[in-house]
Amino acid sequence: MWLLGIESSCDETGVALVRAEAGQDVPELVAQALYTQAAMHEAYGGVVPELASRDHVRRVLPLIRQVMAQAEQPLSAIDVVAFTRGPGLAGALLVGAGTACALAASLGKPVMGIHHLEGHLLSPFLSADPPTFPFIALLVSGGHTQLMRVDGVGHYELLGETIDDAAGEAFDKSAKLLGLGYPGGPALAKLAATGRADAFALPRPLLHQPNLDFSFAGLKTAVLTQCQKLGADLPAHQADLAASTQAAIVEVLVKKAVKALKQTGLKRLVVAGGVGANQSLRSQLQQACQKLGAQVHYPEPELCTDNGAMIAMAAAMRLGAGVQTADKNYAFDVLPRWPLATVFAQ
Questions:
Q1: Residue 180 pLDDT level (bands cut at 50, 70, 90)
Q2: CA 99 from chain center: how many Å?
Q3: What residues contact 294, with CB distance under 8 A and at least 6 apart?
Q4: φ and ψ at 295, to 5 degrees?
Q5: What is the pTM of this model?
Q6: Strands, E, within 181-293: which ranges?
Q7: Which residue, among 304, 313, 320, 309, has the nearest Cα to 31 in the 3D structure?
Q8: Mapping DSSP to helix (H, G, I), strand (E, B) and coil, where does residue 346 land?
Q9: How far is CA 77 from CA 41, 64, 179, 254, 278, in A?
């Protein structure tokens, strides 16, 4: 079975083709293509929804052609077309949904709407070292920070989540306060590599609470306060403040993830989402899990960002697990706000 995945939830247009065979543990990623709008949005310091939607319109069809050519397959070979139904920017989601349903209708093939976060959650199965169930998932995408127990496809238990800003937002907002470019997270991480992580005493919200929830809004406020105190001297201390900010975020993520492993007794951690590409986070999680006798799995860095491969993979795995079916209902809709709990298997 050939599944085409289309991702258009925010500022990246992703298309991928996977092949799922009967008896195959993990579907095979055959071809993928991705276009990022980062350069276009940089001038505005963040994503402009209308511009994002228009750019998806320009990119999605050429990317589909590119993927099918790379796979050396005709469009008629596609068995299922999957698309990101939500959450995300409404206009951007509509481009992917409309394209997917129009393509499927023209081919007489079924479609599937996929939850963006479940795509991230299952993306480590695309890696060279895929995990096995059950595991703890640390989901750290741009607007979400969650810890979940994952016992199988669709069988998820929310253990903790952010009560305000997510880790990705803390990176991006702090980067903006420091006067760094867009996207802020990678820029802050790059600068942090040249600074001292102990230069500024920044808060670690909820770190010592017994729950597994997160809070990063207070950290952002603390970074703002430090920037105001430094004033004209900020450039001289920019790297140190970036390093201290990253250290605070990473310490909270690592210690909460370790706490989740200890509380559940599981010995496998999966990290997914854009922040999962952060090298400091990867290094410290690796060390912490080794001490605990646990394994940690990540998707390759290029698969941490939004991409079509994770959507196609999630569709294939949901079909394989029997928790969702594809259909030929082409009257599509999108869900800009879509709680992940609604896709749990009953």
A1: very high
A2: 22
A3: 261, 266, 267, 268, 269
A4: -100, 150
A5: 0.93
A6: 268-272
A7: 309
A8: coil
A9: 36, 13, 49, 44, 37
